[in-house]
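Sample entry (191 residues):
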Amino acid sequence: AEETQATGQVPTTARIDAILDESFFLPTANKAAHRQLKNAARRLVTTYTTDHQDDLHRIWETERPFELHLAGVTVTGRADVILDKEDGLPTALAIVDYKTATHGDMADYAFQLQVYADAGRREGLDVRAAYVHDLKASSRDPVAVDPATINRAESTVAEAAERIRARDYRPNPGARCRKCEVRTICASSRA
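Predicted structure, serialized as tokens:
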């Protein structure tokens, strides 16, 4: 995206290789793993630049930080990319979050983008859409950012903040346990 912004041209395959040679950094990977991961990155980036060239010319900002300020809590995050001219409108923006693979579970990703959309709107940005882009599948899923959905996301943030302030860390096991990072050491995940 930054290369396209700087030059006005979508990078060629040779330029993608050069960018990866300059920027691809995995300090703990051995040579074989590094080569394998770099080749996978090359495939993902090449597919994206082929299938989504138009997006690369609509970049409004990359790695855009957001802060959602609610009563007693500030949630921070960083959007991968913001596209302009959503639906052909000059001021309309779309937030895109890239994932190497989504495995079909969009709820957590959607919530993240709803918080970003809310924060952006509170800044005065005309956020009209949000998308989760699965790089491996080369697919893009829309995320609801209508007022009712954004209000529910705000409520979720406010409730979580209130529980943290109250030091309420009671387990709440369920389907979410399958993807929790601490499930292997959490006694409640086995419940």
